Amino acid sequence: MEHESIAKSNSPIIAIIGLGYVGLPLSIALSEHYSVIGFDINSTRIESLHRHIDLNREIPTSILQSSKIQFTNNKEDLKKANIYIIAVPTDIDADDSPDLSYLIKASEMVGGLISHGDIVIYESTVYPGCTEEVCLPILEELSGLKSPIEFSISYSPERIVPGELMESLKSSIKIIGSQNDATSLSVKSIYDSFLYHEAQIVSSIMVAEAAKVVENTQRDINISLINELSVIFDKIGISTHEVIEAASTKWNFHPYSPGLVGGHCISVDPFYLIHKAKKVGHLPQVIAAGRRVNEYIPKHIATKVTQELIKQGKNPGNTKVLVMGLAFKENVSDIRNSKVIDLMNYLNDYSICIDTLDPHVASYQNSRNHYAQISDIRAEYDAIILCVAHDEFKDLSEQWFEKVSIGATTLFDVKGIYRKQLTDESIKYWTL
Asked: Does residue 37 share a domain with residue 166?
């Protein structure tokens, strides 16, 4: 007989494994209704949370001060929990294959903690089948328990939006896939405690896993189409943005904008689906092509910048460029998989000197790039590359761009923020 629902039989104690962009807001939302233990292996992270500081600069101190979460990096503190939610990072390795190292380690730890009747919920992005093929055997081996008779697992993928963590968490429609209906109903009751909309139960864990990677793969492919069109239209000599606006007058056209596709979801999840497709004997064409196009765009921009500098009679090795924006998207501090960094690496290959500027990123520096504050900016740049549409960058005057430039101003506006604002024809302007 399957075990009774923990969530319904008594008041659960919930342990959140991983306190990053997903785990921390989830801990806060659940702590409004349940006893919550927040665990992370990063001792610096735990120490800062004890001081009510989110080093990711996403959760205000006032919210952390009012929460009743027990933050810890001691796994012994998790033994009193009966619901375990794993929200650790799942990235890709140098070969673009899934890196499950954090997920496996978290499963090993939880496997040594769970007892009869517990539920383990996974939120980390994986390929279809991973939770049951990789994680479940680890839990069973280390716990000595058999699922779903003595414990059970569930999968409910995160739908967090960086920059809007708490609001996106509560307003999203969570989906839940479990080993059986009883587990799904238990997990649903937990998530429904803070969601604006009821969580939706799907038929299996694999369906929930697939839905997550498909959400971001679809977006990746759509943007890759527009990015490829931007390369074509650049060679033709027409505006991609104007073409999109014209095409949008058709009732069934879906507008997307060209740009750098980075971050922890859109630029990663397609590789998980590609990995699974190959495992079942299919070599995906469209998904892989979309990834190649979006991975190419940083090099495309770097090449355009270099060509323009040479056209102006300058030796790239003697030039200096200001890169505005380091985060992977606007108004966040997250630089994970930021394609701006890829762009800078390509510029470095051309021996171009780079200063970087981002009011949301505390600092960024390597051996070849210097991080600047707005107050440090002087008239010393041969070109400006505006990469990220931070609010702070949207209302700069033409005079500002001219002031920081050496000679004629050259602005590469990746997102097209200023394409309708500039009136000074002496400013050399380019956008995707």
From this structure: yes
196: how many CB neighbours lie within 10 A of its CB? 11
Mapped to the 3 state alphabet, what secondary structure does 296-339 carry?
A: HHHHHHHHHHHHHHHHCCCCHHHCEEEEECCCCCCCCCCCCCCH
Of all residues in the chain, the percent with pLDDT exceeding 70 is 95
Q: Is 265 a catalytic residue?
A: yes
* Residue 362 pLDDT: 76
Task: Please confirm whether the linkage preceding 89 is cis (ω < 30° from 0).
Answer: no
Question: Of 172, 211, 171, 174, which Cα lies nearest the Cα of 191?
Answer: 174
Let me know: does 145 contact 116? Beta carbons within 8 Å: yes
d(C-alpha 380, C-alpha 89), whole Å: 40
Residue 177 near residue 154 (C-beta atoms within 8 A) = yes
Pair 179, 246 in one domain: no
Task: State how beta strands 152-155 and 91-92 pair.
Answer: unpaired
If one counts the domains in the chain, the total is 3
DSSP letters spanning 202-228:
-S-HHHHHHHHHHHHHHHHHHHHHHHH
What is d(CA 352, CA 368) in angstroms, rounded to the nearest whole number?
9
Q: Based on the fold, state whether residues 280 and 311 are members of the same structural domain.
A: no
Is the whole model's pTM more than 0.70, yes or no? Answer: yes
Cβ neighbours, 10 Å, residue 63: 14
The interaxial angle of helices 205-236 and 240-247, nearest 10 deg, is: 120
CB 266 within 8 A of CB 260: no
CB atoms near residue 228 (< 10 Å) = 18
Amino acid at residue number 213: V
Helix residue ranges per DSSP H, 320-375: 339-349
Task: Examine residue 208 and state whether it is found in any structural domain, yes or no.
Answer: no
19 plus 107 within the same structural domain: yes
Q: Are 140 and 232 contained in the same domain?
A: no
Q: Are 119 and 82 in contact (CB under 8 A)?
A: yes
Note whether 381 and 320 are within 8 A (CB).
Answer: yes
Spot the catalytic one: 130, 265, 353, 387: 265
CA dist., res. 148 & res. 171, Å (int):
31
Backbone angles phi, psi at 203, to 5 degrees: -70, -20
Structure tokens at 25: 């807001």
| Domain carrying residue 130 | 6-203
Give yes or no: residues 238 and 337 share one domain: no
pLDDT digits (tens, 9 = 90+) for 211-269: 999 999 999 999 999 999 999 999 999 999 999 999 999 999 999 999 999 998 999 99
Determine the 3-state secondary structure of 144 from DSSP. coil
